[in-house]
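Query form — protein FAD-NAD(P)-binding

QUESTION: What is the three-dimensional structure of this chain?
INPUT:
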Amino acid sequence: MHAQRSLVVCIVGGGPRGTSVLERLVANVDLLEPGRRLEVHLVDPHPPGGGRVWRHDQSPLLWMNSTTADVTTFPDDSVRCEGPVVAGPSLWEWGRDVARLLPAGSPVGEEARRLGPGSFATRRLQSAYLGWVFERIRASAPERVDIVVHATQAVDVTPEPGTGRHLVSLRGEAGQLTADRIVLAQGHLDTRPTLEEQRLASFAERRGLGYVPTGYTADLDLEHLPAGEAVLLRGFGLAFVDLMVLLGQGRGGRFDRRAGELVYLPSGREPRLVVGSGRGVPYHSKISYELGRPSTPRFFSPDVCLQLRAERGPLDFWDDLFPLMWKEIRWAYYHELFTGHPDRVTMSWDDFAARYAEPDRDDADLAALVAQAVPKQEDRLDLASLDRPLAGRTFEDPEDLRTWVRDYIRADLDRRADPYFSADGAAFLALLVVYGTLATATATGCLSTRAQADIEGWWHGFFSYFASGPPAPRLEELLALSRAGVVDFLGAGMVVEADEARGAFVASSASTPHRVTARWLVESRLPRPDVARTTDALVAHLLARGEAAEHVAIDADGDARPTGRLRARPADLRVVRGDGSASPDLFAAGYWVAGTVAGGAFPRPRMNAPFFRQNDALAREILRVDSDNSDDPANPGNFDNSGKSGSAPSPAATSSARQGAPCLSTTRDSSV
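ANSWER: The structure tokens for FAD-NAD(P)-binding are given below.
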């Protein structure tokens, strides 16, 4: 009789991550004993598929920052995992069908008819796609699978007395549900303000000023920002782009093209936005020419990481990983430059490659080799100038800084649109491959806790800046807004002071002696994950009882550094308790969970995306209810009780890392 009882799984969070885990559970359901049913409860107050971030209820002016052809929620046969692939359409393929099938006057159909594979869809269209994905999963699930949606929040998970199962408490009068296993997939968690945010908010309230802390742009109240008045924006990434759109077009301004140049026509209701950041420049534009295929890793692969782990123990990011990562990225870049543009180099690819690949070459040797073989500075891939383009530059006159930033943005737009610089595209693809290798290295226990923190900090920030920037039209609009006097630039190393004497915010930077005084400050960046400050009741309760813990990075000297992310066992994403043991039935995945290096980006088709590999492995672990000791809380896998990554990778993890064959491919109807 026990074998016939349904396995009940509760997924907390119905956004892209939770929906993908659901899809993988359904695809792998045959792991259960014959005749046993699977019952999945999806808990989220927002509609399933899109969840909160990708809900329909947001401004139609907000776009995705990936093209329709580069977004999918279905694994394909490039994905190296154990579970079967169930074919499904990318956003572009789905939109193509929608454009054909939906009648005139349908907002979704009308937008889909305007888009091509290289277009950027609105987030509302992506919401419709994700909602369709969920409905397709539910409609195509085998008869033995039941899917139940709860449009509410989960606020706690506690043991069910005498059963070995768990009670998931739902907000308000929604009651409780009983589950065997729980997956925390809430996406971006809200947090209480930091001490710095509290200080600035208190100053603003005391002096009659305005302060908007970090948050998700679609959730912010921007109505009170005054027209025509200087507003400081701290952060120059994607959150800034959203704010720029909502405070420009969103307040009635419009764009027009005159003599080939984009011109912004203000409504008069816009604030005057003064933006600065650590780098002082926006994220790089998306590449708009057609990209090739990524190459097979040569210097930085899962096997290399496993070998180094066996030789050195848990690997450090800067000492062990990054030199190989950067060598891999430069290899792809220069391969494209030498083979695609041989007139711009002074030696053959074979000669360059042989010398480049020599194992004992350090950075200085490689720089000398590049200088010899690549005459033009614009054709060299230089990390320092790429990462910090304003470093060492100062501008006495704000107009000179303004001109420099505009020229920088214009040059970036031109370069990212020109296949003459196709080596940039090769580097972009190499970054994606490197990200995938990091996911595998994390899952197989290769990384030290400090390395994981460095990946989730500097590396993810650099990746987003170089490879996950805004659509080119958004940067064209930024230039037009700057020429219209709506946006101005403060530079790099931005610092904001709460000036009691002036009763205002005062901003400065390392790029200019010019200072800007304003009554309003907006943190134009997403909040960093910080589970210690989360307002999510479920996670807060788990942490308070020691049933979950924050991931703490331990450096080589034994110093502890909290990362803000939830601690999960890399090999299977089981939540790690405060005592270092792993929960048998509680799992977590997403941007806020340590070891989930896929970040918040959507997976691209044909890229063996870590997102799918992690979700497939997680789903199979959940369904593998009779495995020998994977449920034993006294068997914490790659972690010892000190919280350090201690033991060597397990044979199963090592086998998974090598992943010599793609998923078993099956085909189902992918039409609308």
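ADDITIONAL NOTE: The two ends are 40 Å apart (CA to CA).
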